[in-house]
Amino acid sequence: MPYALAIFDLDGTLADSFPWFLRTINDVADHFNFRRVKDEDIEELRHASSREILARLEVPLWKLPAIARHARRLKAEAASEIPLFAGVEAMLRMLAENGVQLALVTSDSEANAREKIGDAASLFAHFDCSASLFGKPAKFRRVIRRAGVEPGKVIAIGDEVRDIEAARAAGIACGAVCWGYAAPAALRALGPDHVFERMDAIAKAICQNRRVG
Q1: 103: helix, strand or coil
Q2: How large is the C-alpha radius of gyration of the chain?
Q3: pLDDT digits (tens, 9 = 90+) for 159-192
Q4: Residue ranges of the domains in the chain?
Q5: Whether the Cβ atoms of residue 157 and residue 177 lie closer than 8 Å to each other
Q6: Quick check: helix, strand or coil at residue 199?
Q7: How far is CA 8 from its chain centroid?
Q8: Is this prediction's pTM over 0.90?
Q9: With respect to CATH, is domain 5-16+83-207 assigned 2.60.120.260?
Q10: DSSP string of 2-43, one letter each residue
Q11: Which terminus of the chain, N or C, has less C-beta within 10 A?
């Protein structure tokens, strides 16, 4: 069944924010008094789930809302340092031209998201932002209701283990990109419906056999 709605994550999926994250994470760790990330820790963390990362960095769950608000402020200040991945706008435009509704569900604010996406923001029919670390399933369901699309015609595309988990919790298909935060092997181990190694592969997979009208 062809997809009628594609729900995208932002950081690590459309926006190349991982380098910014690596430059920033230890300042955030010092501010909120959790473990700093050493260079030798990075690859191990890329293979871990969100809960495992929190445990290894000794981040209490009660601190997550304050950390998220702080990170959004820092991202707003650094918006010019966080580019889109090459080919994002062309991919989104191809989906829209083939009648696929586009939605964005992200932990970032809508204002930050629109600034990062730039002109391509006009291609999105739905924004549901400021998601908590484990709050994406509810946002996926809300976007699906707004879009008026059957769950079987929806795919969520992201770069982290929690994106796959959220899609499954919402009863929709999931696609994992190999250029973001999580290691491709960690994503493949969960058996997502699609694994994308190139940006242009997204539109090809979603638009396959699709007809407008």
Answers
A1: strand
A2: 17
A3: 999 999 999 999 999 999 999 999 999 999 999 9
A4: 5-16+83-207, 18-81
A5: yes
A6: coil
A7: 6
A8: yes
A9: no
A10: --SEEEE--BTTTB--HHHHHHHHHHHHHHHT-PPPPGGGHH
A11: C
